[in-house]
Design a protein that fits this description.
341 residues; alpha/beta; Rossmann fold; N-(1-d-carboxylethyl)-l-norvaline Dehydrogenase, domain 2; 2 domains; 8-stranded mixed β-sheet; 4-stranded mixed β-sheet; globular
Amino acid sequence: MTNDEEILIWGAGAIGGTIGAYWARAGIPVRMVDIVAEHAQCCSGPGLRIEGPVEAFTQVVPCVTPDNLTGRYRRIVLAVKAQATEEAMAAALPHLAEDGYVVSAQNGLNERVIAAMAGPDRTMGAFVNFGADWQEPGRILFGNRGAVVVGEIDGTIRDRTREMHRLMQVFEPDAVLTDDIWAYLWGKMGYGAMLFATALTNDSMTANFADPTRGPALIGLAREVMATAAAEGVTPRAFNGFEPAAFVPGASPEAAHACLAQLAEFNSRTAKTHTGVWRDLAVRKRRTEVDAQVGAVARIAHGHGIAVPLLDRLVELIHDIEDGRRDLSPDSFAALMERLT
């Protein structure tokens, strides 16, 4: 790696913007791309403001809209919403060097989409669980630190994997280098399904995890994801209070409820009280990642002949809220619980 070799971050929102600001502050050459012109202008000058209890600083990070990007890059970090992966990849691929690779710093199983478009050998996985929210152009809330993991999708560890791991350690000193990235990604899908359910109401993540009446639905969602992961030959790994083993067949109800208590405690320590899904629905009034995350797991489950009634219903309910047929309310969560068997 040369000192003047820029890294390209495609998507300067909560994930990409936070990582980019830390890298730029550390003197790592980085350029960001974002479709919101005003945000790109703010990042380029006067700078991107990182706010919150973790750290507060303003950092100038060169940022352009896709139509103004030139050049080719050996390292592209993709940090767009899951549903935007295919469109972003189509725009990014002409800027990927022949010996380059794309890192998915996203939520979901987007490495599958990236690998189909760029090739498996040009795709690297990443798992992120820190809390951040895009507030407005030039402002991101960094609510809490969380797990960050880097790994190749084929399980190897190469020089480039170690290189990206070192870069991620600039942002998160405890970042992990793994030979089993799918275990973390599927673990996040189990946790993520529960987080989507918390967005059915205006209650905080902690309030949802601490509510014993909602526990059965949250546990049921995680169990459906873990069953699907098992069918895929993956044994998900634990992180930040989420214990996948608590939701596999044969696990005790006590273990599942203990995990919910751990998640309530973990989320009680963040300035990001609600999910990005809730923010999409309640604040930004836009479509969520539900089809590309929860829906993707459901489709994989269906392919294995696994019934996932809670996941299917959760997708329907999120769409109902997106389309104005339902409100964010306890009634919407109750409609999910009706699918409990």
